[in-house]
Amino acid sequence: MSHNSQNSALLTAVNEASARWKTAFNRGDAAGCTAQYEPSATMEAIPFGTFVGQENIQNFWQQLINDGFSDVEYIDPNIEVVDNTSAVLSAKWKMNKAYGVIHKELWVLQADGTAKLREDRFEAEG
Fold first, then answer.
1. CA distance 73 to 76
2. Residues 6 or more apart whose Cβ sits within 8 Å of residue 61
3. Residue-range domains of the chain with CATH
4. What does the pLDDT average to over 92-107?
């Protein structure tokens, strides 16, 4: 496989997984959000804290959904390919009740060809 088609497969997987995450969040499905993370993923949600592993990550998203947050949208997303199996997404984001910055979503290609989040670092500014 050429370098470009590898990157293309990686970018497709990242875009699909990112879309699955947003769709799940917007329908209030915390488990669907969490399914886009690796089992031992780390999520740093500034100023809320750091959450390690799917259970803790799911609890965070569930709380946000319970508190009425929805309608997440990424603004000007940028995806940078790190290597053949990983890419970093950054963007601004907004929801119905908050907005902020995604500093780093590290997406890693899995054995089944999907991408999952290994690291998620974002900030709520308002």
1. 10
2. 25, 30, 33, 34
3. 3-124 (3.10.450.50)
4. 97
